[in-house]
Design a protein that fits this description.
The chain is of the alpha+beta class. The chain is built from twelve helices and ten strands. Strand 1 and strand 2 form a beta hairpin. It is globular and about 65 Å long. Its EC number is 2.7.11.1.
């Protein structure tokens, strides 16, 4: 778990540096804090503002990949324009001679919701007590608020899942990774993210097949809406509502509703199979009927049968909060 950096009084006193190096050279004390499939996240210190920042770049071998560059730039610009308490502030975007495209943002503390759910599923009593169901639903409300704000500005996230929900040490909640977002009116959007099943299978199938044996976490397929998989209609905010509903199911029941042995089976479950409500899946967790109603409405197969706006789902979740155990 990342900790909040300490404010050092002496760091607020010096005059501005006489000569500020350009791009990433401006930041000192760089250290890697996370590494993903396409990017590297580093922490560094900005001597101009006197604050610690996070710096995201592509892997060295992907610096020249136009699609990866464009996706990272998309993530940076969308995140920068979505100025909401539940999104991470972006400070700077640029191109560095050594690192290529980069952007800097607030250095956040805490951990993602998947890490929390994994420990709860393993029976960790301390985590279960600290992140009781009331707090977990509050975290999802913050996520849905960010989505409602994004939707009002023509942005669909398209990759809502526990790994992208960050819970801070002081109850902050951030929705991360806007690199696959759909922006209304953007050209050539399919180049940035191809959600059709045939291409996604090759990318994700190994992860799903090794889930039970190797402890790897499957990615996007578990949270995709039927229309994302089928590619038969335009994706709108109701797709994010479906994904948020899957997250809600998981944080209530501590079980994934649609997981299959591989991508084919998972997609089949999402498109064609009904799942029991969370209270039936995990009867020992005392899930109230209203929670079942919200989940099952959010994960309806037909978009027209779901909540029609994220604000509607947020309102229902707020009505649910008083009925949930607070540990």
């Amino acid at each position: 778990m990342q900790q909040e950096p300490t404010i050092i009084l002496s760091g607020t006193d010096p005059d501005l540096p006489r000569k500020v190096p350009p791009n990433i050279e401006r930041y000192t004390g760089l250290r890697e804090i996370a590494r993903g499939g396409n990017g590297i996240l580093r922490a560094g210190f900005d001597p101009v503002t006197g604050r610690n920042v996070a710096i995201k770049t592509l892997h060295f071998e992907k610096r020249g990949d136009n699609n990866e560059r464009r996706r990272l730039l998309r993530e940076a610009r969308v995140t920068a324009q979505l100025q909401h308490p539940n999104t991470v502030p972006v400070y700077d975007i640029g191109t560095d001679l050594m690192h290529g495209i980069f952007f800097t943002m607030k250095l956040i503390s805490g951990e993602n919701l998947f890490q929390i759910l994994r420990r709860i599923a393993a029976g960790d009593k301390q985590t279960t007590a600290h992140y009781h169901v009331h707090r977990r639903v509050e975290s999802l409300i913050g996520t849905c608020q960010a989505l409602a704000y994004a939707h009002s500005r023509g942005v669909i996230h398209r990759d809502v899942k526990p790994e992208n929900i960050w819970v801070g040490n002081f109850n902050e909640v951030y929705l991360l990774d806007w690199g696959t977002a759909k922006v209304w009116g953007a050209i050539d959007d399919q180049t940035l993210q191809r959600y059709d099943a045939s291409k996604l299978k090759a990318k994700e199938n190994d992860q799903l097949q090794t889930l039970t044996g190797g402890g790897q976490r499957p990615g996007t397929p578990l949270y995709m809406s039927p229309e994302q998989i089928q590619g038969t209609r335009a994706i709108d905010e109701r797709s994010d509502i479906f994904s948020a509903g899957v997250c809600l199911y998981e944080l209530l029941a501590i079980r994934e509703p649609f997981r299959g042995a591989n991508v084919d089976e998972t997609f089949h479950n999402i498109i064609s199979c009904s799942v029991p409500p969370p209270s039936e899946r995990s009867p020992d967790r005392k899930i109230p009927p209203l929670a079942d109603e919200i989940v099952m409405r959010a994960i309806e197969k037909r978009p027209g049968d779901r909540f029609q706006a994220m604000t509607e789902m947020v309102q229902s979740l707020r009505e649910l909060l008083p009925l949930l155990d607070q540990g």
